[in-house]
Amino acid sequence: MTETFVESQSQKGTLAAPDQILVATDLTDSDYLVPHVVAQAKASNAHVTLVHAILPANLLPLEAGAISYLDQEAVDRGVRSILISIAARIKAEGISCDTVARHGFAADVIQGEIAATKATRLIMATHGRKKLAQIALGSVANELLRNVNIPILAVGPHAREASTHALPRKILHPVSLLGDYAKLAAFAIDLAQVHHAELTLLHVLDPDTEEAVNPARTLVWAGRALADLAPRGGELAPVRTRAVCGNPVEEILHAAATNGADWIVLGVDGAFPFWPLRDSTAYKVLCAARCPVLTVRHQSGELDREQAREEQHAAPAS
Question: Where are the alpha helices (DSSP H) in 154-301?
């Protein structure tokens, strides 16, 4: 069987403790991104690359009454000046940092720099669009979440005040119990160990399943499945498990608020690349979370869903 990116990089230890971090910035988000960048770079002694995509001049918006052209060289100089000033703040913390400004569409530039730097973590802000900011992610974040294989720490519109929790002490990982969930859980456990954080593994039983089978029996099965994922012995940070019935988005957000989670580690289904991301649990959590969300793409196909349903129905009564 071909080894997945998540599996191979987890074995190397470069996902939980990356040595190359890429930071995508729109030049207005540094105040709340820099604390996260500094904390994560220090935790793994990582090199940081700041990247900004410069749109072609003919695609830049012009204010009403403004001149009908832009001085591209002046734009480039301004961008590089701001990037250098942000990098100086990071370097002042003793972190190695360089900057990249390239012309092109943001998602293309960012994916190109991931390949060039061999980064194993991307840090970025997610933005809403005008009046839809409460419920919609920007198109750049949307595309990257679909297509980027490395973990993405996304600071959403409601998480910008969470920079004081840049070094996580409590991590919440919703577990789907589908597909390669065990690999994602292993990554979350590694991440918690790197940061000496308390980890909570949460499984939310779909209300439809709750009605179709004995909910108490299924919750016991889910609880045991979560317990099997938790490491035992040694001086490991505590791993807690919880299985509940309800709406996945509401239960994840409630657990994050109740537990005081600093990060939510969330799988983004990569099995259906053309499936609208806005319909997914991950998308809705990213929009509403009041703490950063670290996303990892994984595979979770229909065969896995059917297998999980059969296992839930076959779960022994307690």
Answer: 181-194, 207-212, 215-229, 248-259, 281-288
